[in-house]
């Protein structure tokens, strides 16, 4: 813990930690030492972690990197973080992210962007987003692991951009209670770690039924670490032809082929599969996610928590709401709230939101069908490119940024587990990741297969 605290101090340039909690960390570390001395050391005992800023942590700023939550210190602890502390883990502090987890580059944060520890020449790169601070912190060894959340790729894309492991569990595997909501039917928390084994251990500590989250599943959590046998003989791995996008960089193609070969060499059977509705996933996601966000973000009104605008003489409650939300939310968040409100409005509900829900059902059915045919996991690239430069997308059409999520959003729409594993370097020496998508509730199998790619 002390070593991590000093690493964090030395790495201020990365802007990964937005709030450090040294006293709390050292108290927790001493308690962990005592448990170890007493021979009662649970799985995560003494492990110093970073926590994404949208997990509510009691008495510690939890702002989802938004100005509108300025000064908010929750009175309660999220289920996930409480489980981690119960398992002996240590909190080093809170990690940077895109505002309300909306973004793919960590550039929408009220704290400014986080920086990828990997570089090309002297150019600073994005660590990805929205869990950019988590990815940068783990990749730069500022903590042993971090929590992330993934609504449309926010664990897997930053993991791929920084050469670490990130798993989004099956929807309902991990409690969402006490996590600032973005799109409730898509959001899942998961671990971001250096190795697949670490991910297995940490997911075991985070997962489990929680009566406080009605969407959390009452399904036993197996010992994921014990499932890492390295044996994948007889498994069937699907390669979905619709993920072979036009203009896919040759390096990504080569990485994908190499990944399939590694799995084949380990005894798996590789088959071509079709997921025909893939091309509608991105548009469906960018209707559903903003729709749910516009509803979830209605609670930030200047009354209950965080920032409240200064009012002029004669301003009433409506002006208070309007000014507070105009000042408190950044541009991307405002864009999503407007899109979400529009697609849910009476005149457009059927044309957009309802249509997107139907597309979502078809995307899920595509996956159900290939799993029913005996496919155990699906291999795809994690991202369409390696990490891009900071500021590079600033003036681009926002859709350019959304295209980054092309391989990851399908998994959230279908509620499936997905893992990103570092699988090689591109010609510039930057990390590239592969993604494995698994059957619902079979994270153990998925982690075991992912370990072969590591
Ligand atoms: N990049 C996606 C978005 O901006 C995904 C975000 C996420 O998974 N939280 O919505």
UniProtKB/TrEMBL annotation:
InterPro entries: Amidase, Amidase_CS, Amidase_dom, AS_sf, GatA. It catalyses: L-glutamyl-tRNA(Gln) + L-glutamine + ATP + H2O = L-glutaminyl-tRNA(Gln) + L-glutamate + ADP + phosphate + H(+). GO terms for biological process: translation. GO terms for cellular component: glutamyl-tRNA(Gln) amidotransferase complex. Coiled coil: none annotated. Keywords: ATP-binding, Ligase, Nucleotide-binding, Protein biosynthesis, Transferase. Residues 1-447 form the Amidase domain. The active site is at 52 (charge relay system), 130 (charge relay system), 154 (acyl-ester intermediate). Belongs to the amidase family. GatA subfamily. Allows the formation of correctly charged Gln-tRNA(Gln) through the transamidation of misacylated Glu-tRNA(Gln) in organisms which lack glutaminyl-tRNA synthetase. The reaction takes place in the presence of glutamine and ATP through an activated gamma-phospho-Glu-tRNA(Gln). This is Glutamyl-tRNA(Gln) amidotransferase subunit A. It comes from Rhodovulum strictum.
